[in-house]
Structure of Cysteine desulfurase:
Amino acid sequence: ALLFDVEAVRRDFPQLHREVNGHPLAWLDNGATTLKPRQVAEAVARYCTAGASNVHRGAHTLAREATEAYEDGRAEAARLLGAPDPAQVVFVRGTTEAVNLVAQSWGRANLGTGDEILVTAAEHHSNLVPWQLIAAERRARVRPVPLLPDGRIDQDAYRDLLGPRTRLVALTHASNVLGTVPPVAEMTALAHRHGAVVLVDGAQAVSHFPVDVTESDVDFYAFSGHKVFAPTGIGVLYGKRPLLEAMPPWQGGGNMIESVGFDRTTYAPLPHRLEAGTGHISGAAGLAAALRYLRGLDRAAATAHEERLTAHAATALAAVPGLRLVGGPPGRIGVLTFVLDGTDPLDVAHALDRLGIAVRAGHHCAQPALAAYGLTAAVRASPALYNNHQEVDRLAAALHRIAAGEEPLRE
Ligand code: PMP
């Protein structure tokens, strides 16, 4: 087994050491957002306390420093994704904005009456609703790719759905509810045979396993900084160069132009053409620090640790009387979604919170995925690389007490 010094990593994340409701915090809500290592806080603080400046245009030292910090974030994101060129990395607010950008720009230019967008039933609403919006406008159709009972995407159905009208496939790299990790490269190759482009939602993938957009040959790839140890408000859209270059600007303003006149306005080259207005400079500095931190870890060992932890959690949770895990067997990313007989998911989350254990309850912005299991809400525990076996054991012990009626479910 690959060794991973989780306790050493934990020392880098100050928030892991706080108390909540009189108990040490067990942060098992990483699917919602991840905690930040000290290095990220320091990078953001450095910008705010010494480096505040706008980028790209100033003729002074601090503008140069800020530009370096900003572009460092872009370069680290390109490196994380295996992108050939940082100019193919567009800064956005997050995954949601990245998908909306593609839908509103690429979609408006490329979708017409009767065209089809395939969206898997495992998608987060952010990789579904933007397609519904643009489809309604362009008279195109959104078609769902169904799931198998174990949470995998039905590949036979996918093959049947692909056709001459398919323009785009919207595909998650890791489901935030089921933990499913689809065969992205294979599904992309199939889509390409039909002339369709593929947009992959990497929000839940990037913190859990290495990604390579060149190897998988996907056309667009989106992720959010805050799910990979960086601050909120900064995220990334990667795209293949010819696709990005052909996309009409979707927002106009400063930063994105080459020259502006009332007769004629021309646009800056990539990536700035798709980045109107002042960007999230401190966020990009934080993203650079987060991705550099991740790069400094032994990724194979980290992934092996997460897999051991997830397998342990799946076994421990399955032993709780009346607990039903949703989706497939472990081996997926660390997402454990479950319901407990006779309880409301929100009550369970509140009871866990009183014991210092943070999990999420609700529909997880993936109502079709839960509906495939006949559910409208569930509890989700989602470990990250800095969680340890003790935290999972605390969760399991608390759930045993809840199942036995030993914890009050209402205040
Ligand atoms: N896709 C998936 C799979 C997610 O888990 C999330 C966040 N829960 C998103 C997209 C949306 O990310 P954001 O809210 O950061 O835009």
User: Anything to note?
Assistant: The pocket of 4'-deoxy-4'-aminopyridoxal-5'-phosphate is lined by residues 31, 94-96, 124, 126, 172, 176, 201, 203-204, 224, 226, 365 (CB under 6 Å). DSSP finds 14 helices and 17 strands in the chain.
